[in-house]
Amino acid sequence: MKVLLVEDETKFAAFTAKGLREHGFVVDIAANGDDGLGMALLGEYDLLILDVMLPGRDGWSILAEIRQRGLEVPTLFLTARDAVSDRVRGLELGADDYLPKPFAFAELLARIRTILRRGPVRQPSVIRIGDLELEPARMSASRGGARLDLTPKEFALLHLLARRRGEVLSRHFIAQQIWDMNFDGDSNVVDVHIRRLRLKVDDPFAQRLIRTVRGVGYALDDWA
């Protein structure tokens, strides 16, 4: 899952992003409203987390603009403004939830998962490829009815491959999406995680789903 966090408090943004990444999310950060709007319009995000009071454009206007343009990406306001009128305004603009600061990170995570579980139609609640099933909102996967014991990064990698079913994804693209990093040709981080993922997703089963395209990258599909 790819998240855009629009937050001008540097330490708060870094702490929140770190926690989300540890739970398998890919997180981009915008430190002001204008950058936040631009990234929201150009990026393919599964969730927006917006502060209200931001340098430049505020969170209200960001949400109003993206809704006016027909973008239904789920949105959570995360702000110190906790008056009832502020919450009502956010929900009326089309926010999915409103969490006032300070908060427990566990609550933020639970609210995010709830939003994604009931998210827009474009995000299926279950992704099926052959006998492989993924439930993105619960970050769970199973194959042949048996639950797969995946780490958050392994699930994020499998989910990325499943969402782009049949497409050959380059190592550079995978590294950007999963590790939020520029791929170094000498790095084997993608290959190592693919190998670990195969041990759980492919090796115990007769049919392999993860395919290597030599010199290019990886793809996932039911090739039967």
List keywords for this structure.
transcription cis-regulatory region binding, phosphorelay response regulator activity, 40% helix, alpha/beta, 224 residues, Rossmann fold, DNA-binding, Arc Repressor Mutant, subunit A
Textual characterization of the structure:
By secondary structure, the chain is α/β, with parallel strands linked by helices. The chain contains 8 helices and 12 strands. The chain has helices spanning 10-22, 33-42, 59-68, 84-93, 105-117, 152-163, 171-179, 189-201; strands at residues 2-6, 26-30, 47-50, 75-79, 97-100, 127-129, 132-135, 140-143, 146-147, 169-170, 210-213, 217-220. The strands form 3 sheets. A 5-stranded parallel β-sheet has the order 2-1-3-4-5, with helices on both faces. It has a 4-stranded antiparallel β-sheet with strand order 6-7-8-9, with helices on one face. Strands 10-12-11 form a 3-stranded antiparallel β-sheet. Helix 2 packs parallel to helix 3. It is elongated and about 55 Å long. The model has no long low-confidence stretch (mean pLDDT 86). Keywords: DNA-binding, Phosphoprotein, Transcription, Transcription regulation, Two-component regulatory system. InterPro entries: CheY-like_superfamily (IPR011006), CusR-like (IPR006291), OmpR/PhoB-type_DNA-bd (IPR001867), Sig_transdc_resp-reg_receiver (IPR001789), WalR-like (IPR039420), WH-like_DNA-bd_sf (IPR036388).
